[in-house]
Predict the structure.
Amino acid sequence: MTRPGEEASVTSEFVRSYVITGGRSLPAADDLALHTLVTLAPERTPPLGAGPEVMAIWQLCAGGYLSVAEVAGHVGLPVGVARLLLTDLSEQGHLLRRAEPPRAQNVDRATLEKVLNGLQSLIG
Amino acid sequence: MDSNPSSAETAPGSIYVSSAVTNAAKILVVGHFAVGKTTFIGSLSEITPLRTEEKMTQASLHVDDLRGVTDKTTTTVALDFGRLTLSDDLVLYLFGTPGQQRFMQLWEDMARGALGALLLVDPARLEETFPVIDLVERYGLEYAIAVNGFDPGTVYEEAEVREALDLLPDTPVIYCDARDRQSSAHALIALVRHLLTRAA
């Protein structure tokens, strides 16, 4: 692992990302947001030929809902790579998605009020 | 796959979001390098904060290009995040990353759908905050300033911070101790109150 701000060379990690994605471009953030919640749909079987990273995501997501960022963190992949694999699984009908943010950058009052109440209850 | 939920809202031993949760909100915790973002997120998160290392270029290179990779695709940056269950159906994610312009892709990703940003500031390094303010404003994010007090002996006047950072009069300036859960929660509360005054 490279520390923040450090320069990475052509490491096995870089090559690994390249192999996992099949050299494809990473999808834009407007498909799966970092805080979109995902879980495995019921009664699915893993795609044929799924690699170890896809299987790790599969097993993790079988347990319940997690955000896209959490999936990446738990399986130890960069978010962009994890999102690509999750997008594949989603397109194949394997994933349920929840709490997708609206595309427009408008913040709704009701959510802010719920967040405020929640934070206030934290500090008693 | 380690996880250490410290909060009563999460089932013991579970890393997962409660099945009743239907909404996820996001707030950014931003600031220059080593200002205390990770500490802040850690003091509030109910899960062990997670970190991913992001590559700041697309992985669309041809294999032939790998030789030249050190020049153009080598930057990695850490993205830290934590989670807080705020009610039966709502979780809040806190995302933190350094505010450097070269991490634009990551900023785009973080800003999408964010409620706003808490901008952590070290009073001894105010000038390092300018690029971060630029970025936050470029992405149209509302923000509040949280002065992270490392040294209780150093008291900076709010007016001084406001002037140095050229803040709008209604931009909140809060003092906080990122190591302290209550203090960090208060800073977020001040931000969200400000966001409410800006929301239609």
In short: Residues 1-10, 58-73 of chain B have pLDDT under 50 and may be disordered.
